């Protein structure tokens, strides 16, 4: 099944058509039971068309928008557009002179063309025909821009014909079935063929698809439409009222539902609509929703309700980030309710250095981390700027097989940089044996060969944990010489507890001491900078595990 999605060679002038046909075949084979009669007829109808209209349809589908001018549809490999458009019109997939809003009219035609077609309107509005096109649009705008046929905008026929693509909803649904989302599009094929992106080849079949029922797709598309309305600036109240009700039981759909609920509640919070925000947070299973709800309750002065919820959260925190937030919130709530203060959180136990450098060092290095790296660097103790890339990359290389295991619900199509369930609670449990094998290699010392072999074999392939541009074989070898396997294991264990949160916040620099096989991590803070929460969590963990890390606070010498 995986061979069906191989991108077409760009040497073929009709490569885009071959890729579109690949998607149609894939959807027919893997999602055929989710297609209705009209969608099935479309897929079959495309295959039955002559090549030129098939290619032109594909070009229109892959371009932005649904309105096109025939005189702008110029493709040498297709030939004249009109014969192909006539065939597509007979199929009902395009419509001549479809309805246009004023904004679409102005987007489709030039100022000179509009000046001729709209001359009476411009004159009636007292607009200068030599004025700016943008000014015309503002002056002619109506309270509710009603779409009209081109002939209504241009009764004298000055403007070239416009064609409207009528099958975009079908094509968007097919794209959703193939990619499992709508943020990826047809360019993935081209970028892969160009070598811009390379993806791991994972065995795919009908069992890997993210949607089991047509209702899943309907709900996903309805949520997508609501999100588009929200991002376009529509009132939160209107969007929230149209959120599809119920629970599909599909994790991909429900994740999107709760993410949108969180965005809407967050916007209500910004607009000081705290009652509505709190109610929506209460319905939301987004990881940060409970923490935001607590903040809203506190802002509303509902301290008792906030304390009850905070105590529930403290008994079973969803994450280290929530635990950290509760450590700040609970003392405030106790104080406001006149209750004894809870025991304070332990202070950060990380060693701190103070370093004063000449300002010229910053100018030469370009950034404070670079200036500190230069200061501490020595040929026998080299320093590298790695931030979130080295330790995470080592673990990603070690656990490559686990990350790219072909499990149901992990990979839907050939253009995924990582498993779709990477941030789901059962991600590790579903791969327990594979992760256990990787950790066993750390215990036995086989991890070095495994990591370096993976680095050589998988070079450049997209991964959620490996940032290829920041890694090199000499850097990896030096790290493996100096970082004990037990430390790599402890880092990996914490990373797997919450990959989304814990793959960030690592120290900026690492210094190696090859002669004695040691290392230390250095978090750099310039004047006025402070530790972020995720950095504090990592530094606390390093201290608990006796892994060497320091905070270096930098000041600049006065001139």
Automatic annotation (TrEMBL):
Q: What is this protein called?
A: phosphodiesterase I
Regarding protein family, the annotation reads:
Belongs to the FAN1 family.
Keywords recorded for this protein, A-Z: Hydrolase, Magnesium, Manganese, Metal-binding, Nuclease
Q: Cofactor(s) for this protein?
A: Mg(2+); Mn(2+)
Q: Which Pfam families match?
A: FAN1_HTH, FANC_SAP, VRR_NUC
What organism is this sequence from?
Answer: Alloalcanivorax gelatiniphagus
Instruction: Tell me where in this chain the VRR-NUC domain is found.
Output: 442-556
Q: Catalysed reaction per UniProt?
A: Hydrolytically removes 5'-nucleotides successively from the 3'-hydroxy termini of 3'-hydroxy-terminated oligonucleotides
């Amino acid at each position: 099944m995986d061979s069906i999605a191989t991108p077409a060679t760009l040497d073929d002038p009709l490569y885009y058509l071959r890729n579109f046909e690949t998607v149609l075949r894939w959807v027919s084979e893997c999602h055929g039971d989710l297609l209705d009669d009209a969608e099935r007829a479309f897929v079959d109808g495309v295959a039955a068309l002559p090549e030129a209209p098939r290619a032109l349809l594909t070009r229109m589908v892959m371009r932005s928008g649904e309105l096109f001018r025939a005189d702008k549809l110029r493709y040498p490999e297709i030939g004249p557009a009109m014969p192909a458009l006539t065939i597509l019109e007979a199929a009902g997939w395009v419509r001549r002179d479809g309805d246009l809003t004023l904004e679409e009219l102005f987007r489709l035609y030039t100022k000179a063309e509009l000046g001729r077609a709209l001359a009476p309107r411009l004159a009636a509005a007292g607009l200068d025909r030599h004025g700016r096109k943008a000014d015309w649009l503002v002056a002619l705008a109506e309270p509710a821009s009603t779409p009209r046929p081109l002939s209504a905008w241009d009764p004298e026929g000055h403007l070239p014909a416009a064609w409207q693509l009528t099958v975009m909803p079908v094509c968007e649904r097919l794209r959703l079935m193939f990619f499992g989302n709508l943020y990826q599009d047809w360019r993935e094929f081209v970028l892969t063929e160009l070598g811009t992106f390379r993806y791991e080849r994972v065995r795919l079949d009908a069992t890997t698809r993210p949607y089991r029922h047509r209702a899943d797709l309907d709900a996903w598309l309805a949520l997508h439409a609501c999100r588009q309305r929200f991002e376009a600036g529509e009132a939160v109240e209107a969007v929230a009222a149209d959120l599809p009700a119920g629970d599909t039981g599909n994790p991909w759909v429900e994740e999107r539902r709760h993410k949108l609920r969180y965005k809407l509640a967050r916007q209500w919070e910004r607009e000081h609509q705290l009652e509505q925000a709190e109610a929506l947070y209460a319905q939301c299973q987004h990881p940060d929703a409970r923490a935001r709800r607590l903040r809203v309750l506190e802002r509303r002065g509902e301290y008792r309700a906030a304390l009850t919820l905070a105590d529930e959260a403290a008994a079973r925190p969803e994450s280290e980030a929530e635990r950290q937030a509760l450590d700040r919130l609970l003392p405030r709530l106790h104080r406001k309710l006149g209750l004894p203060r809870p025991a304070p959180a332990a202070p950060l136990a990380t060693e701190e250095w103070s370093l004063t450098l000449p300002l010229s060092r910053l100018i030469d290095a370009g950034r404070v981390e670079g200036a500190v790296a230069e200061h501490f660097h020595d040929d026998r103790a080299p320093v590298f700027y790695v931030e979130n890339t080295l330790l995470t990359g080592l673990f990603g290389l070690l656990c490559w097989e686990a990350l790219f295991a072909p499990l149901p619900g992990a990979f839907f199509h050939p253009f995924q940089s990582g498993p779709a369930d990477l941030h789901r609670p059962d991600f590790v449990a579903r791969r327990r044996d594979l992760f256990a094998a990787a950790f066993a290699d750390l215990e036995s010392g086989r991890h070095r060969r495994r990591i370096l072999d993976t680095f050589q074999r998988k070079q450049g392939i997209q991964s959620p944990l490996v940032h290829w541009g920041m890694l090199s074989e000499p850097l990896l070898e030096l790290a493996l010489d100096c970082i004990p396997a037990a430390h790599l294991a402890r880092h990996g264990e914490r990373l797997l507890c919450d990959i989304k949160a814990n793959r960030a916040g690592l120290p900026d620099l690492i210094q190696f001491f090859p002669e004695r096989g040691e290392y230390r991590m250095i978090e750099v803070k310039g004047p006025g900078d402070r530790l972020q929460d995720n950095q504090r969590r990592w530094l606390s963990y390093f201290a608990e595990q006796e892994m060497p890390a320091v905070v270096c606070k930098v000041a600049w010498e006065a001139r």
